[in-house]
Predict the 3D structure of the following.
Amino acid sequence: MKRDRSNYAGVLLGLALAGLLAFVIDACGGALGGVNPQAPGNTSNVPPETSFWVLGTPGLPFSAVISDSTASWKFRGVVPESVVIVNNAPPAQMTVTKLTNDRTVLSTEIIRGVSLLGIASSTAPFGTATVTLVGGVQIAPPPANPDIRFFVKSPTTGLFTGLIEDQNVGFVIEARIPSLILFERPSGTVDAVLNQIGPGGPFVVDIISNGQIVREAVGGVNVNVSFP
């Protein structure tokens, strides 16, 4: 990459300390998947990232559609899961749908920077819930192309911080595991330098390109992964 990652060391340390506060807030009932809105060093300022929470009955399977002004993404998961869009272009929205015919709880939240902006839930069989930012998306944009995702899938719980970047811009993020990170409009090689806040078990991260897992990185409390 063109930038010196050493410029980010202080920022990542600060995020690790901030993550401890986020953990306390979450334990008290909040849903803070805090995201640092600036890339440090000489990188140009970027707007705060948009992040989502899918919460409710643990283990509940769901499908989801996320859209902003230029791209959309579809995925499936199980509760709980956090989702972050980096390099996003508001407005944005997410619709989640239960995949079970029962009265279990499905809830979703939308966060901009560190501010909770919306929450919705459903207990209906195969129920849906939608959250929006800046009025939501009226006409669904085409699927993201290229569609580059990072999936932090292990350990099963905990916080992490990291740097997500391409050849032009970097984003310092913080989120809870498991987490899906959507990189919008990446340019050239993309990479991630991720750090657990406290050891929680083996750190496993996939890079998914256009629906295919193209890299898997396994580490202790730190993981580096890039593609191509």
Observations:
- The two ends are 12 Å apart (CA to CA).
- Residues 5-227 form one domain.
- Confidence is low (pLDDT under 50) at residues 1-45.
- The chain has one helix and 16 strands.
